[in-house]
Structure formats: structure tokens, C-alpha cells
Automatic annotation (TrEMBL):
This is Zinc-dependent alcohol dehydrogenase family protein. Transmembrane segments: none annotated. It comes from the Bacteria. InterPro entries: ADH-like_N, ER, GroES-like_sf, NAD(P)-bd_dom_sf. Keywords: NADP, Oxidoreductase. Residues 10-318 form the Enoyl reductase (ER) domain.
């Protein structure tokens, strides 16, 4: 089969399309003929070699989420999966290929009418948005800030906050054009990356869902209202300063809270139920996904260049 591997760590030019034997489904696994492959930020981090300490080597086959049709099942897996269209999490490898294996626990059947591209745009990120808002104990009427809203996590969080009756849905983004697109999805106020947004912007937030982290995180901590809750879900802007806890403590008399959130801590059955619900909503057009571009698998390097250049609004999808 055709697959894309990291020939050498570094820039996108280190990615290579190769021929390799198709994987076989092991016990508890299914084999999927892929129709759509999600390109995530973590793929670029692995490609740069930044996770070599965690065992990622040159030669690694990238990709963690795919959609396609189950063509074979391993020992112990119900044979009725064969022939079904599914979304699957493949771990941190194996997705950039014509065929991929996944644990059956990480496979969700797709409803009719949902494209593979939409499924891989929503599958991994939708649960993060949903459970991060739950972790923040978001309630109707509250002012929510989604920091780094132009990615697939933020795009879903904006819609869920708006639909959940937020008093205001505030976003940070880097351009007016992106701000306009986020308004169409439910944002009521648009700030720049530093949090400046003109005289109408809310001064404080009850909930912050933060995909960015980075050096400016403490400034957004300071913007929490009394009893505000801050949930960090990503670090696309890098690590926060080591002393950000000191700024958190300065908010002591406002009773603010800071939490991290990873979907890894959500029970498998809950993740599955939310994915099924969100896929059904997307198929009915009630939840929108934003596919930035669909490219052939062998143009994976181009997808990575667009990500590295910060050009992607939503998600890039590869097709085999
Ligand atoms: N918590 C979990 O369970 C979980 C699960 C999966 C992934 N993640 C994490 O989530 C992140 C990826 O999420 P995503 O795909 O939604 O995000 P993304 O598309 O990679 O980035 C979201 C937006 O952040 C803004 N941004 C990028 N760099 C920035 C910077 N230096 N400063 C300020 N803003 C910046 C960009 O928008 P603008 O240019 O418009 O500002 C970008 O579109 C990763 O950190 C990943 O590890 C977490």
C-alpha cells in the first residue's frame, strides 16, 4: 500500500511517500481502507523530531485519525464490522496510509450523509470541545472566551457555547477574515491574539477554553471574572511561563480556578457516545465542520507546510 513516512526529522520536505505491506488486524483490531485522513498539529510536532524522547523515530508512519470502510477484523472482533463505514483513532501512527488498523474500542460507525473529511475534522476535536466546556462547568448566560478558536477544537467549542446559551462567545484569532468566519459559527465578539477587541468587548470571562497556552496565558488568567474557570486544552503557542501560578494566586480573592483537560481522561463509553451524537448532528447539518483543504495523500508535505505557515482554518484532510 501507499503510505507517507518521516524520512528525516525537520521540515515538511522530510516526508516521503513509500510503498509498504498493508498492516494485518491483530486481536481486538479492525483493518480500514481509508477514504479520509486527518492532519493534526501533533503530526507536525512528531515530524520535527520534538517527541524523539518519547520513542518517535525517523521512518515513523504518521497519522492518528482516519475514516473509511472496515475490510477485515482481527481475532475477537464481531465480524459484522466488516463493510461498515467508520471513523477511527489509530493512536499516534498509522493513519497516513491507504490501509490502517485500529482497536475496535476506538472505532465509531458513521451515519449516512457524513463525509469522511467531515468525520476526521470532528472526531478527535469535538470531544475535546464538549468535555472541556463540561470540565469548566459552563452554564447558560455565561461569557465564554475560546482562545485559538480557528482550529477544529475551537470551531466546535464556539458552536457548542453558542448553542448552550452563552451570554457572549468571545474568540481570539489573527485576522478580521477569520473573525468574520467565527461570527458565522456563533462568536459574538472577536479579539486579536493579545486579547484586544475594542470598546464593545467584554472585560471579563466566566469560562476560558484555551488551545494556545504560551507566554500570554497569564494575561488571560487575569481576565477571569469572579468564580471564573480556565481550562487549558492545548499549547499551540508553546508552554506558559513557569511562574504563571503566581498570577493565578493573585486572583485568589476572585476565587478563580485553573485546570488542564485531556480527552484521554474521559471514559471510553462517554467519548464514544459524544462522537456518535456529534457525527449525527454534523450529518444533519446542526454542527458545522470546517475542512480547510482536501489533498491527495502524496501531497502530505504541502498540508504540513500550510500548517507550519499558520494558514489553516479548520483542518486539512488527505485522501489516499
Ligand atoms: N486536550 C486534549 O484532549 C487534546 C486533544 C487533541 C489535541 N489537543 C491539542 O490541541 C491543540 C490543537 O488544537 P487545534 O487543532 O484546534 O488547534 P490548531 O488548529 O493547531 O490551532 C488553533 C489556532 O490557534 C492559533 N494560534 C496558533 N499559534 C498561535 C500562537 N503562537 N499564539 C496565539 N494563537 C496561535 C491559530 O489561529 P489564529 O492564527 O487565528 O490566531 C490557530 O488556527 C494542540 O496543542 C494539541 O496538542 C488537545
Amino acid at each position: 500500500m501507499k503510505a507517507v513516512v518521516i524520512r528525516s526529522f525537520g521540515g515538511p520536505e522530510g516526508l516521503r511517500t513509500v510503498e509498504m505491506p498493508a498492516p494485518l488486524p491483530g486481536p481486538g483490531q479492525v483493518l480500514i481502507a481509508t477514504e479520509a485522513i486527518g492532519v493534526g498539529g501533533v503530526d507536525a510536532v512528531i515530524r520535527r523530531g520534538a517527541l524523539a524522547a518519547y520513542g518517535f523515530r525517523e521512518g515513523h508512519l504518521l497519522g492518528s485519525e482516519v475514516a473509511g470502510t472496515v475490510t477485515a477484523v482481527g481475532e475477537g472482533v464481531d465480524a459484522s464490522w466488516t463493510g461498515r463505514r467508520v471513523w477511527a483513532f489509530t493512536g499516534l501512527s498509522g493513519g497516513y496510509a491507504e490501509q490502517a488498523v485500529a482497536r475496535v474500542e476506538d472505532v465509531v460507525a458513521l451515519p449516512d450523509g457524513l463525509s469522511g473529511a467531515d468525520a476526521v475534522t470532528l472526531g478527535g476535536s469535538g470531544v475535546v470541545a464538549r468535555f472541556a466546556l463540561e470540565k469548566a462547568r459552563f452554564a447558560p448566560g455565561e461569557t465564554v472566551l475560546v482562545r485559538g478558536a480557528a482550529g477544529s477544537i475551537g470551531i466546535t467549542a464556539v458552536q457548542l457555547a453558542a448553542r448552550g446559551g452563552a451570554g457572549a462567545v468571545v474568540v481570539t484569532t489573527s485576522s478580521a477574515e477569520r473573525g468574520a468566519r467565527l461570527r458565522e459559527l456563533g462568536a459574538t465578539h472577536v479579539l486579536d491574539r493579545a486579547g484586544n477587541g475594542g470598546p464593545d468587548a467584554p472585560e471579563g470571562f466566566d469560562v476560558v477554553i484555551d488551545v494556545v497556552g504560551g507566554t500570554q496565558l497569564p494575561d488571560f488568567l487575569d481576565a477571569l471574572n469572579a468564580n471564573g474557570r480556565y481550562v487549558a486544552v492545548g499549547v499551540v503557542g508553546g508552554e506558559p511561563p513557569a511562574d504563571f501560578g503566581a498570577r493565578l494566586m493573585r486572583g485568589f480573592r476572585k476565587s478563580v480556578s485553573f485546570a488542564t483537560f485531556s480527552s484521554d481522561t474521559v471514559p471510553e463509553a462517554d467519548r464514544r457516545a459524544v462522537r456518535e451524537e456529534q457525527f449525527a448532528q454534523a450529518a444533519r447539518g446542526e454542527l458545522r465542520t470546517v475542512v480547510h483543504a482536501v489533498l491527495p495523500l502524496e501531497r502530505a508535505a504541502e498540508a504540513h507546510r500550510a500548517m507550519d505557515a499558520g494558514e489553516v482554518f479548520g483542518r486539512v484532510v488527505l485522501t489516499p
